[in-house]
Amino acid sequence: MDKSRIDWTLYLCTDRDIMTCETVERSVELAAQGGCSVVQLREKNCSSREFLQLAQRVKPITRKYNIPLIINDRLDIALLSGADGVHLGQSDLPCSEVRKIAGDELIIGVSAATPAEAEKAQSDGADYIGVGAMFPTATKANTRSVTIGLLKEIRSSVNIPIVAIGGITYDRIDDFRNTGINGFAVVSAILAQQDICMAAKQLREKVLTTGL
């Protein structure tokens, strides 16, 4: 996948605990139909075998819509499933070491909440940064709070793409006008809605009409 052509506008993080349809695969398909442009598969409570099998089932769906499949935390699952990338937290494997193993083709994202963390991620070979939590969120514990002002500082410190994450809703997107970010990572604002496809469509339209 050509990294320079990735559309970061609407980045979906999966969460089976809140989704309103029966399977992760169906939720991903509906979100992709609505305009989600990146999918991160995030599984907190399943075995490694189950995670791999799920990734192998989701990959044909993301391929169908020509969007990247990113695996949360697990480089092994990413490589074995043929996913397009992996997303690393600050306590996961170092980005620089993952790059040595995975090579240049794999997309690597890193979570950052300070300019120093963002700069380190970029120098270590990250392709993009996830910044947050921008607002309180019920889908992830132990998050660090990031203000809009701090987000702008992080944006000024690196030149790789940035997606904002944490409590992002339709009504809060306007708060990010003129921040220079590339998109939003969302969970509940899409997956917890009764019409996942429509929720994704409306969010994407909102982002595209907001001057980021």
Q: What's the CATH H-level homologous superfamily?
A: Aldolase class I
Structural class category:
alpha/beta
In the sheet with the most strands, the strands line up as 1-2-3-4-5-6-7-8
Strand proportion: 15-25%
C-alpha-based Rg, rounded: 16 Å
Overall average pLDDT: 96
CATH architecture: Alpha-Beta Barrel
Number of strands: 8
Span of the ends, CA to CA = 25 Å
What is the C-level CATH assignment?
A: Alpha Beta
Order of helices and strands: EHEHEHEHEHEHEEHH
**Residue share in helix:** 25-40%
Number of domains: 1
**Biggest sheet features:** 8 strands, parallel, barrel
Specify the overall morphology: globular
Counting DSSP H or I runs of 4 or more residues, the number of helices is 8
User: Unreliable runs, pLDDT <50, ≥5 residues?
Assistant: none
CATH fold label: TIM Barrel
Characterize the structure shown.
- The protein is of the alpha/beta class.
- It has a single domain, classed as Aldolase class I (TIM Barrel, Alpha-Beta Barrel), CATH 3.20.20.
- It is built from eight helices and eight strands.
- The chain has helices at 24-34, 48-64, 75-81, 95-102, 115-123, 148-157, 188-191, 196-209, and strands spanning 10-13, 38-41, 69-72, 85-88, 107-112, 128-131, 162-165, 183-186.
- The protein has an eight-stranded parallel barrel with strand order 1-2-3-4-5-6-7-8, surrounded by seven helices.
- The radius of gyration is 16 Å and the shape is globular.
